[in-house]
Amino acid sequence: MWFCELHSCEPKFARVWIPDAEEVWKSAELTKNYKHGDSTLHLTLEDGLDIEHKLDDKTKNLPHLRNPDILVGENDLTALSYLHEPAVLHNLKVRFTDSKLIYTYCGIVLVAINPYENLPIYGSDIINAYSGQNMGDMDPHIFAVAEEAYKQMARDERNQSIIVSGESGAGKTVSAKYAMRYFATVSGAATEANVEEKVLASNPIMEAIGNAKTTRNDNSSRFGKYIEIGFDKRYRIIGANMRTYLLEKSRVVFQADEERNYHIFYQLCASSHLPEFKNLKLGKTRTNTLHWMVGLLILIVLFCVYLCSGINELNQKGLFQVLAAILHLGNVEIKDRDSDSSIIPPNNRHLTVFCELMGVTYQDMSHWLCHKKLKTAQETYIKPIPRLQASNARDALAKHIYAKVFNWIVDHVNKSLRATVKQHSFIGVLDIYGFETFEINSFEQFCINYANEKLQQQFNMEQFGDKQCLFQHYGAPCHKAKVITNVLCVQMPKGSDDSWAQKLYNTHLKTCSLFEKPRMSNKAFIIQHFADKVQYQCDGFLEKNKDTVNEEQINVLKASKLDLLVELFQDGEKVTSPSGTAPGGRTRLSVKPKEIRPGASSKEHKKTVGCQFRNSLAMLMETLNATTPHYVRCIKPNDLKFPFTFDPKRAVQQLRACGVLETIRISAAGFPSRWTYQEFFSRYRVLMKQKDVLSDRRLTCRNVLEKLVQDQDKYQFGKTKIFFRAGQVAYLEKLRADKLRKACVRIQKTIRCWLVRKKYLRKKHAAITIQRYTRGHQARCLVKYMRQTLAAITIQKFQRMCVQRKLYLQKQAAALVMQTILRAYMARQKYQGLLRNHKAVFIQKHVRGWLARQRYKRSLRAIVYLQCCIRRMKAKKELKTLKIEARSVEHFKKLNVGMENKIMQLQRKIDDMFPTRAELVFFLLSLPLSLLPSVLSPPHLHLLPLSEKMTRALAEETQQLESDLNEERSRYQNLLTEHLRLEERYDDLKEEITLSVRQELDSENKKLKHDLTAMRQSLLGNAGAGAGAPGSPPYKVLMDQLNSSCEELEVRKEEVLILRSQLVSQKESTLIPHPPFYLAFFLFPFFPLCLFVRSPTADFHRLNEDGELWLVYEGLKETNRLLEGQMQQQRRSYDNEVEVLRGELQSVKEENNRQQQLLAQNLQLPPEARIEASLQHEITRLTNENLDLMEQLEKQDKTIRKLKKQLKVFSKKIGEMGAGQVDTISPGQMVEETVRPVNIPRREKDFQGMLEYKKEDELKLVKNLILELKPRGVAVNLIPGLPAYILFMCLRHADYVNDDQKVRTLLTSTINSIKKILKKRGDDFETVSFWLSNTCRFLHCLKQYSGDESFMKHNTPKQNDHCLSNFDLAEYRQVLSDLAIQIYQQLIKCMENILQPMIVSGMLEHETIQGVSGVKPTGLRKRTSSIADEGTYTLETILRQLSAFHSTMCQHGTDPELIKQVVKQQFYIIGAVTLNNLLLRKDMCSWSKGMQIRYNVSQLEEWLRDKSLMLCGAKETLEPLIQAAQLLQVKKKTDEDAEAICSMCNSLSTSQIVKVLNLYTPVNEFEERVSVTFIRTIQTRLRDRCETPQLLMDTKIIYPVTFPFNPSSLALETIQIPGSLNLAFLTRV
């Protein structure tokens, strides 16, 4: 495309490319108009330098034009308007250095530039992002090529090939490895052995034997390989096969300067010091940089053991012997005997070692290295050969042996990778050398370039075929372009070493324009390849092509004692293809072997290298032609291996060599730019007038193009697209930019006028406003002055009046105070005299009585103590009798009855102790100080040590009883049932006693309140007549009560001590841990077996034939564990009781101390205050007692309600079952015996919310209600959660009849059926949502009617009556909760599968705001159109789908909290998928696209508001996407902008921010690219962030789900079962 094509536009200031010696091409701008015939151009470089560029005198070709900035950085080179070498080079450089993008499309070719740095773009998240995507919908990547190959294989049922080419060090092997990794990840392996791992594991040994150091690459592959990855019918990897091409055998004997031999030889030498390699007799290498190869060699040995199972230890040893022998053979020195013969000196050390390692005779090998055999028709002659020929024969033998070893290893690698099942299809990955040209090019470069010519020819045919199909598909006329085909280059030359060059000159020099002869040489020729001219040297061509090996030397090796060497040279080996395909390996294409003639196998080694390579290449081309090829061209950016450093010279050289520029030339010959009519209309709508816009978009575009572009050859109209020649898009872009620039100027003019006028109006309005406010301020000041004057006069009047009134009130108050003080003083003097007399008499009376009672109590305590000792002695004597009697049931009953009586007495006396103690304290308050020492040392304090002694004695007795319990444990099993009944009877009696105690306390409290009221009335009535004096009625009543309380306190304390000791012993004897009754049933079947085992004459083999002994043993272990657990539980309960008693004792001590402190305080008070304090203390005590009684009353009310409920249930049972079945009720369900059953009238229609069914109908119930139920009909026509309610009502009836088997089978069948229906219809959102709702409702019903108070508080009284009574289903609640979690996760996956195809199209590609997003021209890799066509997804589609999800869940009755969690997960998926695609698509990172994304997010937020879901956390999940959209729109130039970005994008990682900035692409003229300096500033500021380096968001994350309790207000008895459910066998109860 030349500059003259745009001459009619505006040639001045046009930008062009001019050649440069350093940078290859430089950008310049035209400063003077060009006129036809000018020989020079006036240009200005980018650095500001003005130059004159001279045109070629012969061609007069003008420089290449630059593409518009909008097209710079395109991911497809064919999308460029101007397709030429500088445009391609500049586009690759911008993407590689500025955007850090290493992949670019070039039509059907993927260009990959080696970054020399590990990039985070090959993880599993990237693989998942590219999986299932169209090739044009994502940014270029090796994964996109692999996905396209995999998709076409599955869709078209056609084998695929990926051709990876490039020079050494360009990254071919790595690209092939990533492609195979992708296949292994997306397809999975059909067998346990991972084929991808095996293929990758073969890399070390293949690199060791096939890679070497060259001047361009330290690990250069010196052979080509084609790996076929086999797939089965389900497209899973089942095996692989490797073919190799053109191994560089000459490197074994010759290496150029700064190059090395194959790695394996250096590894052997570096490992020579190891014991395993001592016998190889190798020396150390001269370089010290290969020590790492020792570890690699060990790795190779392990690989041989692991991968090549056919290589045993002997073959491994032989393999290293052969390789070491090749090194020794190269060191064999051959000397001249005469001019026609040569000789090897005797006892040559290297030849001796060679013969030892190879297992051949020294004489034979030394003889045939210096001689050859000549055969004639009659005789055979042995002829000596000169030294040069002998040396060549030695080198040929070494190369031949190495080639045999290489092929042998490849064969064994293929055996390990061979598929075990039938192969259905395959994808081949070709890793082959690229075009090569050096200073000296020989036979190897000729073969390599020959292979590249064949591949380029195949590529040209493929590309032109695709273009013709594309033009035919869109209805555009197709014109054939000129394609250069090197017919000469694809035909292998023939001839002898003497005349071959001359024959070439005579044959091709005059007939072929692609063949040339060098001027200064007669032994070289030049071929014009597709990439460049290459000069080949003829020296050594014939020898390298023939690769002749002496047949007698081969016979000597065949006679070797080394088995591996014999296997390498055996005559009976199968005829295999030259490609190295493993025998038996399945390939789609195979070469039929010819019949082997006698003696043909002995001449197999005489086949020329050219012939072998041509055959293998022909087979490869046949394979590639039978597959769909995909091309990857690898580029080496620089020779110094610097990361992201672009060397234009090296890049251009490789672009020419790998055919990328040839691809561009072919694309430029046609119509490289393609637009759909809608895209063209959207982009260039600004160039049209309103009258030009028609309803028919195609006709509109045709009319506009005819006006804008006069030459109709520059474009062609197809069915759905418009095809443009190169440069036309740039022309249209220039017209569009000019039109937009004019529109901007007009808009600026109008806006500036509007701003100035608005500024004038603001000033005018401000002046008027100031005047108005000034006048108003003056008027307000005048009014304020007048008001202040009036207020001052009023204040003076009232102030004077207040002063006079205050003086009068002060005098009046002083007189009243003086009168009050005087009268009070006289009254207090009189009262104190009366009070002293009364207290003296009162104290004398009570002290005398108290001393008499103390003497009596001490005597009584001594007598009681003696009685305790005597009774203890008698108790010990009767211990044995009690043990015998303990076995009888009657004694056990009596013992329990006694314990119950004692417990009842103890409870009553403990309750009476606290008011008695309070009365004692009140008594002590009234005593004088002289009597305090005798009072504060009560005799009951000495009983504390006695209590501790009794506790220790009881502990010893407890230990004795525990030992007796272990002896008598087996005999207690018969008493377990009776024991449980007595315990339940004891609980009933205890509750009855508690009730009676409460009634007594209530009556006593009422009596005390009555007495207190009487005292208060008496005191009030006699207040004036000395009511508080001694001898008055209130005083006497109070003293009588105090005396009786003190006496009762002493008696109760003694009784409490005695009963407490008896209670402890009684509890220990009655609460002995017995084995639970179910153990008896568990062990009963095994008792006969245990007895049989104890018999010494038992036949143990017969007994244990079914494992009964193990079962018995396990049963006994379970029994021991249960007994130990019960023992520990009883021990803990005993410790808890001791701690409670200690706490009570401590509280008594604290109360005593507090009372003493109060007493001391009260004694310091005057007598009048003491009486008042005593009365206040009594009131406080009575108030506390009243509160305690009220608390006990509430507890008793709860117990009464519970008993009434049980009474109702059992009354109904009695009425149904009859009086004869009352005795069968278990003790745990009995109520008190003293309560008479209440006859409750029963109505016929009073349903209890239960459904009864027969056990044989359970399968029918599950089938009709779960398996065959259609959710849509239930959700629309019936109440939400109806199946859950029905199942729970059936479960309630099973609990009501106490049928544990029925409960268990119903729950198990329900859970399994739900799992089954979800497994069958798990991809149906409606089904999954329906059963998620019903599972949660069933779980809530189990909680609501479980009987737990935390759940019952939300119920109505009627619902509380329906609670489960017999079974605790907490374990099944956990199982249902786990099932609900599984259903929730399945719902999320189902929802994700529905939303996944809509997200990218609706959130990114669809143009929600019409006209904002600019459409860019696309290349061959067509992206999904951003214009909404019929069938494409839009944002409205996503919103409708979200509404459908929401309405479905609401119809099914899903909990609102659960709906919020589902919506939050939906929005996370939308945000994550959108952000991931944004990070992988350069065309989406623009300012306008950021606006579109923010608008789409606002629509999603509006949807949340409409559904009242703004507080569910869904908006927060979109925060990374919102910040990414803001990042696309904010300014990105200065340091302040960088700081704002860092503070704004707190939800994005550093890698995501940098990725967005790198991908940011201007779509319109006013946008600018982000500079590299700005991106580095961002990275520096975000360096300290602690975050994961992951680029993409994990779309597989599912937030943890919770199921908050949501009780139902629906009454179970009101639920009606519709007939459509076919549940007529259910009966309402």
From TrEMBL:
Question: What's in the keyword line of the UniProt record?
Answer: Actin-binding, ATP-binding, Calmodulin-binding, Coiled coil, Membrane, Motor protein, Myosin, Nucleotide-binding, Phosphoprotein, Repeat, Transmembrane, Transmembrane helix
What GO molecular functions are on record for this protein?
Answer: actin filament binding; ATP binding; microfilament motor activity
Q: Which domain of life is it from?
A: Eukaryota
**Dilute domain spans which residues?**
1308-1584
Protein family according to the UniProt entry: Belongs to the TRAFAC class myosin-kinesin ATPase superfamily. Myosin family.
Q: What residues form the membrane-spanning segments? A: 290-308
Name the coiled-coil region(s).
951-1059, 1113-1213
Query: Segment Actin-binding: which positions?
Result: 617-639
Name assigned to this protein: Myosin VA
One Pfam family linked to the record: IQ
Give the species.
Hucho hucho
The residues that the entry says bind ATP are G166, E167, S168, G169, A170, G171, K172, T173
- All copies of the Myosin motor domain together span 72-737
Q: Which GO terms describe its cellular component?
A: cytoplasm; membrane; myosin complex
* InterPro entries noted in UniProt: Dilute_dom, IQ_motif_EF-hand-BS, Kinesin_motor_dom_sf, Myo5a/b_dom, Myosin_head_motor_dom-like, MYSc_Myo5, P-loop_NTPase, SH3_Myosin
Q: What is one Gene Ontology biological process annotated in the Swiss-Prot or TrEMBL record?
A: actin filament organization
